[in-house]
Amino acid sequence: MVARAAAPQPPDIAARAYLLIDVTAGQVLAAKDADKPVEPASLTKLMTAYLVFDALKSGKLDLKQTLPVSENAWKMPGSRMFIDPKMKVPVEDLVKGMIVQSGNDATMALAEGVGGSAERFVEMMNRQAKALGMNATGYRNPEGLTEAGHITTARDLATLATRLMRDFPEYVKYYAIQRYRYPGTPAANDSNRNLLLFRDPSVDGLKTGHTDAAGYCLVATAHRPVAGLGEGPQGERRLLSVVLGASSEGARASESQKLLNWGYTAWDVVRLSQPGAALVSPRVWKGRSPDVKLGKSEGVVVAVPAGQAGGIKTEVSRPDPLVAPLLKGQQLGLLRVKSATGEPLAEVPLTVLEAVEESGVLGRAWDALRLWIQ
Questions:
Q1: Is residue 156 classed exposed, middle or buried when 0-12, 13-18 and 19+ CB atoms within 10 A define those classes?
Q2: Please, what are the domains in the chain?
Q3: What's the CA gap between 52 and 11, in Å, rounded?
Q4: For labelling, which of 24, 30, 181, 237 has a CA lying 20 to 30 Å from the CA of 219?
Q5: How many CB atoms sit inside 10 A of residue 218's CB?
């Protein structure tokens, strides 16, 4: 988490709540009322998509498989894909209809296809929200129409969007589609509601939302190359903005753009370790290896105020002594990053990159003696 004292001040954002996250660094760069309960409107469909993508990944659903359109799905009010009960629609088209057109009919057809019923699917949504740590979120429907108790927060939405991109990289490409319509449906209904897809080539998703109660909302993500981060995707910096309760469709896009641009210009990123490489390798006792590699599997990257990269200071806190066995992925230490003047900038949990098994009986006995002598 970024300390307020060291953080550049964000621009004025005309929205009820907002949040900007550096996904690459895993840091919050700016926030306003990020934990205030709000209506999610069609941002609800991010969770619907999460469960649909999970069903696709596990093989419970197939993109080419067709699903029926129930009377319930056909009669859904609000944004529509314009499908009807005479149709059996491929899952991939329903996914596109849910994402590009924000179709409530497509969303309901997918929810019924995955959950068996809308009610059962909502139960799945709420269980998944808790599993992701979205403790301030409660779902009452799959599509996002106003309903008592149907709430979330900007922080929970950021958690969901980040996990959606991380857990299902093979499916998030659908959020970058600018135009789509199902054959036979109105030609005027073909444009993605996310205006940033047409304005900023670095933006590749995610989702819009609007109801009278929620206002105009947008969760947007962008990726831009940064010198020094690496080659290919590893050399790109991804930001995620959540803007809730803007006054119009144009305003939610312009305020999101303003927030993203500020994040890229007011903050720099510094790579402290490469993917899979150890940031530190402290001594291990009673293990088959004499030390343990601590870091992050994707490498350690931190965001710092622009121009301050050369003066940052780092320190690692960890248990001492470290005694085997140590499991791969086990959290074991914390990297603290400070500015040149000592102001806290970031805290990065460090994990074990390679497991360290216990040594044999003689090795453990010898290390036990050495520890006792110390």
A1: buried
A2: 4-267 (3.40.710.10), 274-373 (2.60.410.10)
A3: 36
A4: 181
A5: 28
Rounded-to-10 torsion of CA 272, 276, 277, 280: 80
Which residues are marked as active site? 42, 45, 102
Q: Which residues contact 29 (CB under 8 A, 6 or more apart)?
A: 2, 7, 10, 20, 21, 22, 239, 263, 266, 267, 303
What's the one-letter identity of residue 360?
Answer: G
Count of residues for the chain? 374
Q: Quote the tokens at residue 136.
A: 């301030």
| Residue 110: HSE in the Cβ half-sphere, 13 Å Cα cutoff | 36
Helices marked H in 136-267 — which ranges? 154-167, 196-199, 249-266
pLDDT per residue of the chain (374 residues) written in tens, 0 to 9: 444 445 789 999 999 999 999 999 999 999 999 999 999 999 999 999 999 999 999 999 999 999 999 999 999 999 999 999 999 999 999 999 999 999 999 999 999 999 999 999 999 999 999 999 999 999 999 999 999 999 999 999 999 999 999 999 999 999 999 999 999 888 888 999 999 999 999 999 999 999 999 999 999 999 998 877 766 666 789 999 999 999 999 999 999 999 999 999 999 999 998 888 999 999 987 778 888 899 998 888 999 999 888 888 999 998 888 888 889 999 988 999 988 888 888 889 999 999 988 766 555 554 455 555 56
231, exposed or middle or buried, with CB in 10 Å at 0-12, 13-18, 19+? exposed
